[in-house]
Design goal:
Layout (H helix, E strand, L loop, with lengths): L1 H28 L3 E2 L2 E2 L2 H20 L4 H22 L4 H17 L10 H23 L5 H19 L3 H21 L8 H18 L13 H5 L1 H17 L11 H6 L5 H22 L4 H23 L6
Antiparallel strand pairs: 1-2
Helix pairs in contact: 1-2, 1-7, 2-3, 2-7, 2-8, 3-4, 3-8, 4-5, 5-8, 5-10, 6-7, 6-8, 6-12, 7-8
Length: 327
Amino acid sequence: MLKYLVVFTCALVSGAIFTLFLSRASLKFNILKKDNIPLSGGPAVALSFLVSLFVAYFLFGFSIPNVLAIFAASILLLILGIIDDLRELTVLDKLLAQSFFAILLIISGIRTDIVYLGFWGNFLVTFFWFLAITNAFNLLDIMDGLAAGIALIISAGFLFIGFLTADFNVQVLSLILFASSAGFLIFNLPPARAYLGNSGSHFLGLLVACLALITHYASLNNAFALFSPVMILGMPVIDTLLLVIFRMIKGKPVLKKSRDHIALRIGALGFSPFKTIMIMYLLCAIFTACGVVLTKVNNFFAVILVCTVFLFTIGIFLKLFKIEADE
């Protein structure tokens, strides 16, 4: 347990130090910033993740091929995000690059393994999973502390499952992601002194998407555990789905920016930014906890849980439907 504590401390402290250092450099050299707030979160979390990964490898000596593939793809996507932060890329440019990285990960063996789908079925599910979760996190990054806090909660869920299933790679990656996000979040809670930027939201999104795929869920007496990753990532998934639905109802282009996000509609009820993200954290924790529980119950209780979460989601939609955030 001491080794885990060392890795956690390394990721937490390095996340904070890298954020502080890169934020000062951003302001000093007048680069990579928005509204005079540094977009240092992405590079800071990535550096913290890399350093902590080396520390974990030194302490534990674990098998690393898939881990390296995940980190390499995440770094490439981080670089794409930095370019996007410096000069905004087109949606098509970003989708093409994301598709390329997704295919690289699939070829490296990081994909779903659903028996009934076969190779190409699993290939397509994995491909669209990577694109969906990566972009969901990018869309979620619309308030101080939101995307990083959601990543922290979700990684805690995977960390818990990692210990339940004795899956060492999931344990280490989840722990590092949790602590690195926490180190950055110190500077990102409202009012933020540093932003994730497109680089950070894409980096976190791809890491979380990979974690969901390398984690083991289903058992013979609970086929519904296959829904666990979707439920654990319920907050970014539902935020994206409702965002699309709200825009379609208004007759707006799906890809056009608008203030139809769940967080912004909750804020329109009169909550402060801090209270708004706390509500979002609570909703995320509910979805994540349900996803973790789903891995440990039988089919009967799994059906009840899935139906309950579905009705809860419908309730969120109906509650937010009539609320409008100021444009």
